[in-house]
Please model this.
Amino acid sequence: MKAAGWAVLALAAVLAVGAPGFFTAANLRDLALNNVATLITAAGLLLVILLGEIDISVGSQFAVCGLVIGVAPWAAPVAGMALGLANGALCGGLRLPSIVVSLAAMVALRDAIRWTTQGAWITLPAGFQWAGLGQDAGQWLVLGFAVLIVALLGWALANVGLLRNIYAVGANAEAAHLAGLPVAAVRIGTFAALGAMVGMAAWLNALRFNEVQPSAGTGLELKAIAAVVVGGASIRGGRGTMAGTVTGVVLLGMIGAALTFLGVSAYWEKAIQGAIILAAVVLDRWGGRDAR
Amino acid sequence: MILLQARGITKSFGAVRALRGVDFQATAGEVHALVGENGAGKSTLIKVLTGALEADSGLVERAGSVAAVYQQPALFGELSVTENLALAVERGRVKGLINWRAREARAKELLSLAGAEIDPQRLASTLSLPEQQLVEIAKALGTDARTLIFDEPTASLSQHDAARLFRIIADLKARGTGIVYISHRLEEIFEIADRVTVLRDGESVAERPIAAVTRTELVMLMAGREVSAPEPPSGKVPGEVVLEARGLKVRKGEIVGLAGLVGAGRTELALELFERGEAALVPEDRRQHGVIGAMTVAENVTLASLRSLMLDFPAEQKSALDYQARLGIKTASVNALVDHLSGGNQQKVALARWLATSPRALVLDEPTQGVDVGAKAEIHRVIRELAGQGMAILVISSELPEVLALSDRIAVMRRGEIVAIRERGQADQHQLLDLMLGEAR
Amino acid sequence: MPANARWVLAGLIVAELAVFGLIADNFFSVANAVEMLRLAVEVGLVALAMTCVITTGGIDLSAGSLMGLTAVGLGLLVEDAHWPLQLAIPAALLFGALAGGLNAFCIVRLRALPLIVTLGTYSLYRGLAEGVTNGARSFSQFGDGFRQFGQGGQAWVLLGAAILFWLLLERTSVGRAWSAIGFSPEGARYARIPVARRLALVYVLSGVMAALAGVIYAARVGQAKSDAGSGYELSAITAVVLGGTSIFGGRGSMAGTLLGLVAIVVLQTGLRLAALPAEFAGIATGLLLILTIALAAGRSWKTWVAVGGVAVALAGWVIVRPQPVARKFTVAMMPKAKGDPYFISCRKGAEEAAKELGVELLWDGPTDLDPARQSEIAESWITRGVDAIAVSVLNRESISPVLEKARARGIKVVTFDADAKPAARDFFVNQATPQSIGETLTDEAARLLGGKGDFAVVTGALSAANQNEWIVWIKRRLEKYPGLRLVKIVPSDDDRDRAFAETQTLIKAEPTVKLFMGISAPAVPGAGEAVKQSGRKDLFVIGLSLPNLNKPYVRSGAVQSVVLWNTGDLGYLTVWSAVKGQSGASSINAGRLGLKVIAGTEVILGTPFIFNKGNIEGFDF
Model:
């Protein structure tokens, strides 16, 4: 997390000198809006990673939830939770390895979407955009709602017994069981919570436009995992904070726009992103944190 | 008032009978010490008393709950002290919001009861070992335990920290808590205990008020009455020195026993020799280090001696079958998984692995721990045979009769140093125990 | 238990073969066997090394990206440095070893987790490939011998590699060490296994195999681009896990991995030959994966539930399969990408024509812009024995030999939207050339900007071939307008949201830019939404897209013009040409479109059309 924080500061310093235009309120707001989906997904994914599990099907879940909005706008989080429950039942209930389960879910859901939609976009009712508000109010609504959800989750992660249990289960499931925690229920519930968050992300994203693309969310899983990990969470579970994850999202979300402002060709963006992830790994190791 | 009463406790692990009809009780306001050699059954008894293990037969009655404070505390490292305490106290009952203020207040209260000056917001992973132990005590207090069991709490504490712990124990005792205290340090027993029970080979051999027993008597009780006569000198001609570390020399064809208490630094010495590449090592932790349970017997036997690139399966089978016969490994097939073998047979596999490398020197760390009597005798036979063939052997054992029976020479280790070396026949169990405990000269 | 899972998998393959033998055309044929083998090679090579990696308890997500980077590196060495292939290929493999070495260094020396490290290099290697080629460059000057080799010779490479890896993993002390490390790194250390060296070796080998797969990809497709091998790491992992290798490490089985590979390839090819939706492959693979790990975990009754699920799914296929009817003339039509709204509207016209003509229409294509996948689908149609093939070509170098083969088998070949080599097809249904698209767009930009000013292009994927060709023509046309300046090209990955975000950033980062030119269907509405939300009235958006996607923006004035032809008509005309087109004729009577001119072998649809506020409401596609 520290590495990510320093990287954000360093990038900000470079921008302050090289492209002060980056720091206009409008740009920062738009940038934040464009990263709302990643932020909420990463926040949910943090919970699963704290458990010592992983879910690489969030991108496909995102697309499914988007399509559900076309049918019933408010049902997206419910649909997400249902998908999360399915993953949770297999990983937390049957104790199947989450990387394989979610790989299966990722591939199967994505192809199911392709099959049912044949790629067609779904047009939402005209009044759906910005929830029928004006653009200014709508933008603040989406942004405010996203920040509120993440802040709430971050707060709940620290203060609500049910969520707090995730840390104990992720750090040492055996000891948590001995301490009387319902380990399987915690696991299943956490996957379901992630699904609900993904549904929320899809819903907030759909609010910003008035069509839903079935190809949405491709690559979202990698962005979100990278953000959580760069934000200092241990993929082995038990360690990680919401603040760190938010820092990770900020860093990875900033890079693309920063490169544009600095006049760097977009062709190098992916390479620089990869280099930053590796650098965070190296810094964390040299900083003496135990990632193993 | 009796808080904890156990009668006729029997417990076996496979062929090993850890406890045989043990009686034990804890009384309010009394410190009851439990002593015995390593392997006498103390840990098993604690687990039965706390309810972590079910006894095969016998009865445990508890008035109020029983909590144990172990030598190695088990805290959630990434959580704060407050939270560790809360998890223990609330036992997952908290459903809604966490009241951090109440939790912290409770944590402070428990910590002060335990006599600890620790900031409850610190992460458990940042605590020193004595601090973690204090948190464990606070945890135990938080569960309203009326009986507290301390399992070698001072083994890794400084004198200062130990003294503080004794004050806390005295406090607890004064408040009517029943204390069960386990330690190898006999001076501590005489300092704080009111009563002492001696366990030997899974049996309770004596229960006395502390005033009614002397140190020498205690040592006698622990070691056993029929002290074996000193073994005659082996008459071997010592060969060249093969192993050397911290003033300890092991010669060709010689078996050196290394005695010492848990934590005396014996395993570290063994690892040092292994990592320098001078000796093969059959490590203490069989399941984690000695064998790979998910691989077959044959695969385990050859794992350290795969010299060529290509595997030679017929040779592997032959080698495994050879060692199976030679060491008497009881398994349906050499292609069975080691996980399916009993502890003694797993140990033989671990031994076979290193014999297959034809080492000049072999270090065995607790080679017969948790092994049944038959397998133990076989392992001893093999060790003697190997020495006879010219191997230099260092046997680390907490079981003094084993050390005495096997060794040509016996070294005693205490706090990381070799404090004494005795020729075969020059020491008996009492003297060794004295040297290990570090009080007698 | 793994052996048990392997038998179940073998049984499933037999079931697959039986089902497809019944419902797929020409499934049991030599041609199909060769085709399946070719398909399997690259994923197979990656999967072989991945089996070893997973056996040690690790994972390598960077393999697919490294394929792309190596393919590009090979192209650079051959085309720019003029190295002979005999030198360039070993150099590429050496490079793969180095790239694998970087993974190894981070994992072994820095003791970082494989998942995180290879997630980083996954991004890094793909990004480097895009960076050095500007995404666009595609290499195809490898020579005929290389290309020839890629038509089947690579099967021997897979065979050789499979034997070597089988020996390595299951018959050598190195493989034994990997297995021990996978079960227990500590236990391995206590057996004096050089854990660090063995782990490093496995990642270096994975790098080398990814590089080899990249080279073979270039030989098979006849072209090397930065997007080679996207997603191959996931296919490889799927094959490995299906094969019963434990994801937790320890037991690995090369035979299992090969079975897993066969299961996937048979499924994909079989679905295509049976004209079932290719999407079933993903759904079935997902179910199979869960079944496999459930079996490995020994959850007996739950396993049977899963088996039941798969059985129901299999039965479902048989039920939904097209009922055999009197055999009709079959036109197989392939878009560049199935999900692209442009082609979806094309399909509508094609279906209309098929109905009028009484022919059967097969519609299938890659789900993303993947030229290799196009060749695979075309091959499966040849095997299936369709009467006519119509293709919108992604890469002419790679597909032309396949289409020539189709023609040699007496199949009529038509290209539409984008052409193959002239010898490879009977007709090209030409809606507009890249040149006319580039020129129309540039002219339109010049008109709106009054001949001078800065503009930016929002493209699809940075490596998309057709978009890059349009950009070339746009740049050429700019010579006519000295006052116009193209200041920035940003990618949208054919994602509306990404196009939106990139445009939004550009509006602020490049204040001189007054016009945004979207050249992928979702990019125009994305840019339009960004301009709309910016509230700026002085910005223009134009581009190549569909009227329906852009109507709200054209109405509100955020988008000025959408350049396109009637895509429905394009599909319609293509099917008519495929069925009724006569070589040598000077025109064709194309149903409701009337008489259309044939110039040489090109059927001309008409010139690009500019949709704007004045006329867009009259169109619905």
